[in-house]
Amino acid sequence: MTMTPRFSPFDATLWFASAEPAPATTALEGETRADVCVVGAGYTGLTTALELAKAGAEVVLLEAEEAGFGGSGRNAGHCTPTFTHYSLPDLRRMLGEPWAERLIARQTRANDRVGGMIRDYQIQCEWVQNGYVMGALHPGALGALREKEASYNAVGARTRVIDKAEVEAITGSPRFVGGWLHEEGGHLNPLSYARGLARAAMQEGVRLFTGSPVLGAAREGGRWRVTTPRGSVLAEKVIFASGAYTVGGWPKLDRSFRILRVFVAATQVLSEDTRRHVLPRNTTIHDGRGDIYVYKYDAHGRIVASMFPMGRRGRDLAYTKQVMTDRLTWLHPEIRETIRWDYLWFGELDMQVKTVPRLYGLAPGVVALTGLSGRGVPTGSMLGSILSEWALGVPEADLALKVEPLREAPFYMRFGPQLSLRWHRLKDNLATRRDGMALPPHA
After folding, report:
1. Phi and psi of 200, rounded to 5°?
2. Could you tell me the keywords of this UniProt record (predicted)?
3. Is 337 exposed, middle or buried (0-12, 13-18, 19+ CB in 10 A)?
C-alpha cells in the first residue's frame, strides 16, 4: 500500500484525538487597529503576542487555520533545550559574538520559559520534565557526548555522561553502551500546549482571529495595513511568525527556507508489563544516530516516535510501520506484545543552512522569523521574548538574533538536508562496524 501524505494536519494525528479543546475564536471581520499585528499562531507567534500583551501593547494575532495548526500541533512533543546539529563551539564560530552567546543563553534556558508558562497559566498539556537521553550505540560515540557535557554544563545546563548500567536503568534498553543525560529535558502534548498558550494570550488581552489568512501588507500613512479575506488590521509594527507553513503574506518570504518533512507515529496504549521495561522513568530517548529515532510516552502509555522519510520509509505505509516496529523492538527486546501503530502523520520543518532561526527585516516596522529547523517546542517558546523585545523598541544591536535582509535559501537546500541525513547514516554505520557493534535494523 502506498501512502499519500496529506497536508491537512489533524487527519491522523494523536494530538488532535487527545488534545485539550481549542479556545473559541472567530475570523477577522472589518477593520481593526493594533500596536502590533502578529501573523501565525504557532508557538513563536503565540509567545510573541503573549509577551507583548503583558507589556501593555495592543496586539492582534492572525492565523490562517487554528492555533497550533502547523508544526506546533504536529511535532512529537519533545522539549529539549539544545541545538539540533551544531555544537556550541561551532555556533560560536558561525554566528560570532555577541550573537552566539545571547542565542545560546536563550535556547539552553528555554525549558524554564516553557515550564513557567505552563505553571503560570495552568496549561493542561501532559508536561513532564523527566530528562532526555541521547544514547551511544557504540563506544566511538562517547567522545562527542563528553564534549556536549562539558560545553552545555559550562553555560549552566544540568547534563552528564552516563554509563551502560545507568542508561539501561533509565531507558530499559540493553543496546546502549552509554549516553548523555540532559536532566532538564521534558515532553508534552504539543497541541494542548499551543491551545493553552492561545488561551493565555487571549487572557492577557490579545485579539486572536483564526481562519484569517494574511493576503498582504502595505504601508498606509504611518502604519501598515495587513489584509485578510474579510478584514484588515492597521498596525504600527508587523511580525510574520508562520514558519514552515508560510503561504503568501509577504513576497518571497516562503523562499527563505526549504521544507524537510518528518513523520511521527504513535502506538496503541501499551501494557503495564511493557511500560515497566520500556522507558521506566518516562524520559525522552534519542537513539544517538544522525538518522534519528526519537521516542517517548504520551500520558496514556502510547509510544510516540519520529523519524525522517528516506527512500521507501515515509512513502510505503506498511514498510514504514515495520521500520518503526523493528527499531523499537531491537532497542527493547523485552517487548512481548505486538506493536500496532494507531496514528501516523507528517509535519514540515523550515530548514536553514545553519539550523538556527533567522530574523529578517522586511521593511521599516516589519520583520519575519523563519528557520526553526526542527527545534519547535523550546525554540518557538523562547523566540517570543526576542520578537517582543524588537517590537517594544529594544535596539537591534541588543537583540539575541541579528536582523538580516531577506534572503532566499540557497538552491542546494532543496536536497541538502536529505543528503546530510544519508551521510550521517553512513558515518554511523561505519563507526558502529568499526567498533564491532550490531547495526540496528534498516540502518
Report:
1. -60, -45
2. Oxidoreductase
3. exposed
User: Cα separation of 390 and 437, whole Å?
Assistant: 50
Q: Enter the C-alpha cell of residue 298.
A: 504520551
- Indicate the helix (H) or strand (E) that contains 317: helix 317-331
Q: In this predicted structure, which of 165-169, 206-210, 257-261, 382-386 has the lowest mean pLDDT?
A: 257-261
- Model pLDDT, residue 3: 35
Q: Determine what percent of the chain is predicted with pLDDT higher than 90.
A: 85
Domains, in order of start, for the chain: 14-76+191-259+353-414 (3.50.50.60)
Query: Other C-beta atoms within 10 Å of 253: how many?
Result: 20
Cα distances (angstroms) measured from residue 48 to each of 37, 42, 271? 10, 10, 41
Write down the H helix ranges in 121-213: 142-154, 164-171, 190-203
Check pLDDT > 90 for residue 7: no
Per-residue pLDDT, averaged over 90-99, amounts to 92
- Please list, in sequence order, all residues whose beta carbon lies within 8 angstroms of the beta carbon of residue 360, skipping any fewer than 6 positions away: 253, 256, 367, 368, 369, 370, 403, 404, 405, 406, 407
